[in-house]
């Protein structure tokens, strides 16, 4: 239904730029009022520039219509003698400004396509046209259809490996329109060959909008999303969570100054020591995790086992945890390390190792003659681990192995809020849903009004890495808003082992051309 509404809205939306161009249509012999009629105006426009009626179909295909509309605008101004690349670029990008300007500054009557002067392009012009076309086409594909992505960390091992190159489908959940449209093409947030220079302009900013897609986010989907805590970044420490950096500094200052400590001293110190910047949603770091819970689900982790709505969740096949391995005093040779594909962990002593293992590899490890015991590393229930969300150790004594219960916020659902649970929702209310939030005298004020309840404006998700003891995921920074979701990871086309050279078998041939489960 959403897709049908979107398709039907295309000709209606086309009426808006046509309204700015109606004097030009009148100069071409078409009564201006006709180009204000949805559907019919598109027919007239295509007929005027003498293009195939296949263009009508292209105009109702999401994302292809963006490129087609630009070409229609260019074909219209060609009929008034405007053939220079600058004119064509301006009308494609700013038709609302260019059409009225052209009407005011030209006395030229309409020239039929067959009678238009054929422009002989120089080699340089042909190269420029080809490059512009390639950039626009590739940008449309990257923004609206599919984007390449590389696995940079081990948080999803062994389901996804460091060095995996994969495709992320934007159509799976519907692509987002760019919220910061003026940006250097094909890069994320930093200009090439620079350390900290932004690749985008903060103005203009567009509101969040998601086009129709093939489906919605489901439990166990592997999802790429904009890192929620990436709204603020310490540029010299971009691999770390800004908010955790500040919390750690506040603790340090509290210990250093004792009774002289004042809240905010840690934050001030970080801002003096480093360069700190804010990033819009679509320019925040891309993370990839497994969506273990969707809006409305209740999650709880009991001794490492995830439970969804009271039932033990199905564990990913290659999910792994850290284990204490005790041996008879001997270690493990390279053949065993390669067989188990061990890339993390370490040696505590000649007989004690800490190694990440999946359930299957744990059984293999236990079968070795020199292994005495394989013991899971589990933080017991009630043991506080301060970096864990929601960072309120008074009301929430949670850790990475025993967490919750917690219900994931759902659009339209109203909950009671108070000083005991507000740590869960403070950032959601203030940053993700753009409300004025304040606590005064142990009372909560939202947009200036005393509040004891709150209704969510969008859906949220809970993301976790399959490498459960080495994953900075929702257990540490909380909910992922729906407007942060980028796409679904669908296919690995190349896998390179970063620890090997090409002559040593750098390509993992058994891991290429595989779908992502």
Tags for this entry?
single chain, 517 residues, alpha+beta, Alpha-Beta Plaits, eight-stranded antiparallel sheet, four-stranded antiparallel sheet, 13 helices, 30% helix
A few lines on this structure:
With 517 residues, this protein is of the alpha+beta class. It contains 13 helices and 23 strands. The two termini are 28 Å apart.
Task: Give a topology summary.
Elements: H1 2-27, H2 40-48, H3 54-59, H4 64-78, H5 85-93, H6 95-105, H7 123-145, E1 146-150, E2 164-169, E3 222-226, E4 232-234, H8 242-257, H9 265-273, E5 276-278, E6 286-293, E7 298-302, E8 305-308, E9 311-312, E10 320-327, H10 334-339, E11 346-349, E12 352-358, H11 359-367, E13 371-376, E14 403-407, E15 414-416, H12 422-432, E16 437-440, E17 443-446, E18 449-450, E19 453-455, E20 460-464, H13 474-477, E21 480-481, E22 485-495, E23 514-515
Antiparallel strand pairs: 1-2, 2-22, 3-6, 3-22, 4-5, 6-20, 7-8, 7-14, 8-9, 10-12, 10-13, 11-12, 15-19, 16-17, 17-18, 20-21, 22-23
Helix pairs in contact: 1-2, 1-6, 4-5, 5-6, 8-9
Written account of the structure:
With 517 residues, this protein is α+β, with helices and mostly antiparallel strands. Among the domains are: 2-115, no CATH class; 305-376, Peptidase S8 propeptide/proteinase inhibitor I9 (Alpha-Beta Plaits). It is built from 13 helices and 23 strands. It has helices at 2-27, 40-48, 54-59, 64-78, 85-93, 95-105, 123-145, 242-257, 265-273, 334-339, 359-367, 422-432, 474-477, and strands at 146-150, 164-169, 222-226, 232-234, 276-278, 286-293, 298-302, 305-308, 311-312, 320-327, 346-349, 352-358, 371-376, 403-407, 414-416, 437-440, 443-446, 449-450, 453-455, 460-464, 480-481, 485-495, 514-515. The strands form six sheets. Strands 1, 2, 3, 6, 20, 21, 22 and 23 form an eight-stranded antiparallel sheet that branches. It has a four-stranded antiparallel sheet with strand order 9-8-7-14, with no helix packed on it. Strand 11 and strand 12 form a beta hairpin. Helix 1 (2-27) crosses helix 2 (40-48), helix 1 runs parallel beside helix 6 and helix 8 crosses helix 9. The chain is globular, with a radius of gyration of 28 Å. The model has no long low-confidence stretch (mean pLDDT 89).
